[in-house]
Amino acid sequence: MTSPTSPTSLTSTAGTPRRVVVVGGVAGGMSAAARLRRLDETAHVVVLEQGEHVSFANCGLPYHLSGEIERREALLLHTPETLRASLDLDVRTGHRVTAVDPASREVVVESAAGTARIGYDALILAPGAVAVRPPVDGLDHPSVHTLRTVPDVDALRAVVDRLAAQRTAGDERARAVVVGAGFIGLEAVEALVARGLQVHLVELADHVLPPLDAELAPLLSDELAAHGVDLHLGVSATSVGDDGVGAVVTLSDGTRLPADLVVVNVGVRPATQLARDAGLDLGPTGAIRVDADQRTSDPHIWAVGDAVEVQHAVTGLAGPVPLAGPANRQGRRAADAICGHRTTPQAPVLGTAIVRVFGLTAATTGANQATLRREGVPHEVVHLHAGHHAGYFPGAETLHLVASFAPDGRLLGAQGVGRAGVDKRIDVLATALRAGFTADDLAELELAYAPPYGSAKDPVNMLGFVAQNALDGTMPQWQAADLDEALAHTLVLDVRSAKEFADGHVPGALNVPHTELRTRFAEVRDAAGGRPISVHCASGMRSYLATRILRGGGLDARNLSGGWFTLRAVHPHLTTA
Amino acid sequence: MTSPTSPTSLTSTAGTPRRVVVVGGVAGGMSAAARLRRLDETAHVVVLEQGEHVSFANCGLPYHLSGEIERREALLLHTPETLRASLDLDVRTGHRVTAVDPASREVVVESAAGTARIGYDALILAPGAVAVRPPVDGLDHPSVHTLRTVPDVDALRAVVDRLAAQRTAGDERARAVVVGAGFIGLEAVEALVARGLQVHLVELADHVLPPLDAELAPLLSDELAAHGVDLHLGVSATSVGDDGVGAVVTLSDGTRLPADLVVVNVGVRPATQLARDAGLDLGPTGAIRVDADQRTSDPHIWAVGDAVEVQHAVTGLAGPVPLAGPANRQGRRAADAICGHRTTPQAPVLGTAIVRVFGLTAATTGANQATLRREGVPHEVVHLHAGHHAGYFPGAETLHLVASFAPDGRLLGAQGVGRAGVDKRIDVLATALRAGFTADDLAELELAYAPPYGSAKDPVNMLGFVAQNALDGTMPQWQAADLDEALAHTLVLDVRSAKEFADGHVPGALNVPHTELRTRFAEVRDAAGGRPISVHCASGMRSYLATRILRGGGLDARNLSGGWFTLRAVHPHLTTA
């Protein structure tokens, strides 16, 4: 690959070192600065960071709040001094860039020393994102916090230390309200519970972790409830008041939650004021538009990280994606381009993300069902509940996977929730997505198998097998969301055992265990009376066999994706018999 | 995909069910039988198994020996009765097929009931593999066992139970000799140690787990030694005698090992006598030759599993690969072909495999270095020692990865050893191999990152980054095996701290910590005196920075792949200062 950039315009004249200014000293910006130095020993690289810290572990903040990362210093991966020693970088914290002058190639920077102008041959903007401030009255209440920076976590720890001490002393007041059940919100909840606080979690969407498909979210809700978290779903916080003792959060349904601590994390938006003022092109979502080499509309300015627009691999939609991995790679790419080094093709973003919620892991890659529906992308959804390793080996945990496939078999997205092995499968599926793999390819993947690690037919292979059967007509599917239609127009056939049926079932379903289906075929045929048959079992495996028996006998049978387990998640009223 | 087979010749005339005979009722054979039934409700499917058990968990046998899988029944995943009930299969254990008559389309089968002939429209051979019997005198000694089947493990457990009881009673004699340090041999060692036996492990190759690259094997040797296992590498067992009390194993170096138990697992070979006698084409390695649909040279006979020849994805070499995953998929494919169902393209085999050795995991996918050297495939090797998750999050374990890349960047193979996260990375790399990914693609993979699970720059991304730098000339490498040449013709420069250097170093190396390299540049230049500079640090990261500083100053520097850690593994005499 040869870079389309013309490095000559940026290489200074003979003997004069290249001057590079980087605005923002965390993930993307610091990756760019480090790569620049490694590629160009003579360049003068200045990193301007408005905060007190550079290159800190922002993804580690919730775990410092919980105490799991005990030492604050562990979060500070580098300091200006260590970066000077190993990479000869000129890193200046407490330096805020207030303007960019593209014409003179200078930035205006304010610091304790006053205002200065710094010239550049190449400028890299890595301003990151800022927390979205939701429309809630009273957000200035002193009990309201957010969790984005080292100072944020310092402040939160001080409050939590005090509350934990009060609670130890017998004071029942140690209540927290967390607004926003996204990735960081859930990590904050986990941390606050670990510190002994009573936590209320408020989420506007109808399920926790909104990027997750709805049928997986109840697993997280159950885990949160099992750890004493009070959930308030489908409601918003409308105001934060004060009752003389502490804060009171009022929700849109009228609930009033007294709180000693309120943590608000409802998302981020790109920090693009500087780019906008400099006249750089922004995309429709307000993020900075860049080319394949991270170059902005100004030939001397690059941009990386949470503030830039990227293309989503599955939907093709453009927008910002606030993830550390892509930010680091963008920083590297910008440095390569500036130095005239071979740049690697920028891969569209998959949005791969993961979160620990107490004992569970939830992860996603590619497009979720809500996005595919919204964008009108035809897709077949497959649900799987499988052991994370061989079932005959002790300790197998159930792994819940959902994957979507295009009609031609191409994988579009996947999600997983479980107590073990989720991260592995989502990483394999993220790799498969990047490769453009189909259900056939997943079926043929050759993954590492020994009983402690997986199965001869790994859950990822199984997703491929099930999708093949669903897409080629071997096993037509129905989905849990279709239950009303199934009850109205088809025979619902439950092929679990009589005992399982007695413990809870769909009202109106016929129960014929799958092992009796061959001998009781006529009974089922007569009950169907010409209608299609909507088969289900607990997870989808026995009902697959049943579907094949019925179809082999000439009946129009289809299999419930995910079985009773997914049905109950989508229709909670079915939980009791 | 449309199958190239002509199903019409196998579909019986109107109304007559298709007759299929499957020889062998474990992984591949049983997968074929089950898929056949699911695709064809009317077929008559007979499974003939010479042993007592079908569909048993052969990969679980060592864990039943150790007691980790306590219940023997857990290994027996299905019985003829359960297979009859759910899949209407006619499964006959204790039935040995002694001949195939392709002309009359019949098999000759012997059982307790005598000899019979069974006709078929389609025959699937899944005979598996048989243990290789090494050239050792006295292998008929009653103390000699192997570990391939349920009866094998039953016999072993009886011996081990007795020995463990003797040991508990104070008898020091409870000694085992395991011959063969491959995957199953290592699992057997782990099991015997868990049961309290003193274990000697004998391996002809110069390192344990011969498929593993030599520089990773010392990690396993150290783990085995830490658990009290006595290693005998580079020697063979020549005879098993008897000293009147028990067996005595004599090794090729003259060592005599008294033993109460000898377990021999030196590999397997395809069980192809039946196919050979039937006149089917065999490949050059003696395995059964099949087409893309698993069909043999006889149009009515298919073959699957350990006995068939497959093509290796990286080397293109043909040969048998005894792995459960490929066997299962081959069974499925044969059934699809017989039923005229769409078959999926057969992917060449990667040889992905994994083993637990006490607290360590070792895994491999694709071609190892020994194979690439033997086949003359040009390749660049990259070593990485990285945390299995973010270093600032507690509990990060070092993951040791080795990967080989073609000059154009294509991944050729990868291996890993460590206490956590090895299985995930090897599965991602196996998926990347299948996709034909390059170092650039690995660098751009978007894997799930939160501190408990990985790093923003995952070890797999890092392999890509390092390989990019090595291949595009940014960071030329030298390898641990080149140490003598480096000492003879270059300046060996150790850029670790003075403390690390004092704790052990290459005799003759110059020590300049990487942070002092810019100020002591002239000293290094003068010491090199025009020679190239062979830089190293502990793992390869600081020496990468040093290499860039030196090259930025016009010197010919190269970086040691894997650093001091890999150097010590290859040159054990360097361990002490």
From TrEMBL, chains A, B:
Its cofactor is FAD. It comes from Cellulomonas gilvus (strain ATCC 13127 / NRRL B-14078) (Cellvibrio gilvus). Belongs to the class-III pyridine nucleotide-disulfide oxidoreductase family. This is FAD-dependent pyridine nucleotide-disulfide oxidoreductase. The keyword Flavoprotein applies. One of its GO terms (molecular function) is oxidoreductase activity. It comes from the Bacteria. Residues 486-576 form the Rhodanese domain. Keywords: FAD, Flavoprotein, Oxidoreductase, Redox-active center.
